[in-house]
Structures are given as structure tokens and as C-alpha cells.
Amino acid sequence: MKLLVPIKRVVDFNVKVRVKPDGSGIDIANVKMSMNPFDEIAVEEAVRLKEKNIATEIVVVSCGTANCQETLRTALAIGADRAILIDTNADLQPLAVAKLLKAIVAKEQPQLVILGKQAIDDDANQTGQMLAALLDWPQATFASKLDVANGVATVKREVDGGLETLEIKLPAIVTTDLRLNEPRYATLPNIMKAKKKPLETLTPEALGVDVTPHLVTLKVVEPPKRRGGGKVADVAELVAKLRNEAKVIP
Ligand code: AMP
Fold first, then answer.
1. What CATH number is attached to the domain comprising 14?
2. Closest ligand 1 atom, CA of 118?
3. Domain interval for residue 130
């Protein structure tokens, strides 16, 4: 069984993002970039399926600039077999990524696509769902446990009221939640081996996909600065402050 794992290069989760002075977006110049954390979980899950002899091949794909090669190499070092870069400088929105992934699915014919539930930069939480719709495949989002056997994926997902278990027929789409697994670190020997693994480069044009954005970002602003807290002596002072200063109680 072949697995496809789309991975996005995003601003590292430890970096405090800065908004560009003109409010047109986030400043990513000279900022540490890493694999989207939910995609690391997706790669880890794929590698575990291969270690259990359920999967035979793991293909990772990233859409973006040539720098995404670095992210793809990280996935290869964790245990993926082969990588595809869809090389573009375009501003890619989730629908464009889903269309590119649909073209890769047509080319690679995977049985299961495991994506992150959301990218921590745009927080869109759309690509997996859009891909499932474009392919007309079943989907199970926010997976916290995944079992695959006899052409069926059994997925536990965290919902508001507890855990829901779904059975979906392959081929299918699964998106990962935080508790699915704890990704391993790539070891030095595996980082060295990853340099020799195949990495193919394609373009949206070669795949016949139009990636023109459909949405316009009007403005990005920093969240308001938090004001420092203070201590109150007793409940009476707290109530007085809530009433007279914060004006949140009558
Ligand atoms: P989003 O819908 O943007 O929150 O992203 C959800 C998931 O879609 C990510 O965790 C990735 O698995 C995948 N994805 C989004 N953008 C890209 C991209 N540019 N290249 C590869 N995969 C992507």
C-alpha cells in the first residue's frame, strides 16, 4: 500500500511571528522555518504503518519554493522513501494546494493520504477536506488513532463530546491531530541516508493546475498588547475593580 504525505514548510512554532510594517502579511525574511508540526505527526504515522508492514512506500510532497527541499529531506530522514517538490513562488491557498495534490494522487495512485489537520501559519484547516471533496474520497479528520487493515482505515477522532470512531474505505484521506503519536527525531545516519533518496521536482504548469489565488488578504494586524495584571487585597476590591474599572459587572 502506497501512502502520500503532504508536508508544508512553515515558520517554526518557536518563532514569535512579526507582522510586516505595511500590514500585508507576516515577515518571513530570516526566520527559522520547519515542517508543520501536524505534518511531522503524519510522516511519523506513515513510517509506523511501514514498520508494521502495512504500508510499502511513503511518498512525501511539498508545494512551495525550492527551500521546501530542506523540509522534504527532513521527512526522508524520518523514514519517507521518496519526495516530490511542486516548485512555485506563487502564494498558494488551500484550494490551490488541494488541486495540486489531486494531480499528484492521479499520478501516484496512493491508497491513503495523511495530511496535517492544519498548517500553523494560515490555520486554514481546509486542504485535507478540499482534497477529499475533489477526489470524492471518504475522509476522517483530526485522527488521534489510526488502524489500517483489509482495505479499511479505522480512525478515532477527538470531538467535543469525547471520542468518535469512524471506519472509512480506502482510498481515503486522514488528517492528524496532536495526540496521534509523538514524532521521532531523525538520527544523523538517517539524515545522511536521506540525502541520497530520490527527490523529483514538478511545477503547477506541468501538472496542468491553475494556482491563482481566489482570496485577497486585506490586512494582517498584531493582537492587542496584553496589559499587565495586578493583585487585589480581597474580594471586595476585586468586585469594585470589575465594576468601576473594567465595567464588566453592573
Ligand atoms: P491548511 O489547510 O493550510 O491548514 O493545511 C492542512 C494540511 O494540508 C497541512 O498540514 C499539510 O499536510 C497540507 N498542506 C497545506 N499546504 C501545503 C503545501 N504548500 N504543501 C504541502 N502540503 C500542504
1. 3.40.50.620
2. 4
3. 2-221
Instruction: Identify whether 247 is part of a domain.
Output: no
pTM of the predicted model as reported, rounded to 2 decimal places: 0.91
- In terms of phi and psi (left: phi > 0; alpha: psi -120 to 50; beta: otherwise), the region of 195 is alpha
Residue 94 lies in a domain: yes
| DSSP 8-state class, residue 21 | T
DSSP for 152-182 reads: EEEEEEEETTEEEEEEEESSEEEEE-GGG--
Centroid of ligand 1 to alpha carbon of 68 (angstroms): 13
Identify the segments of the chain with pLDDT beneath 50: none
Cα(209)–Cα(219) distance, rounded to whole angstroms?
28
Determine the distance separating the centroid of ligand 1 and the alpha carbon of 184, expressed in angstroms: 20
Give me the torsion for CA of 65, 113, 59, 207, rounded to 10°.
Answer: -50
Task: Name the residue with cell 481546509.
Answer: 126
Whether 217 maps to a domain, the answer reads yes
- Where are the strands (E) in the chain, listed by range? 2-6, 9-11, 33-35, 57-64, 82-87, 112-116, 139-149, 152-159, 162-169, 172-176, 199-202
pLDDT digits (tens, 9 = 90+) for 128-149: 999 999 999 999 999 999 999 9
For the chain, the domain total comes to: 1
Residue 171: cis peptide before it, omega within 30 degrees of 0? yes
- Cβ(183)–Cβ(79) below 8 Å: no
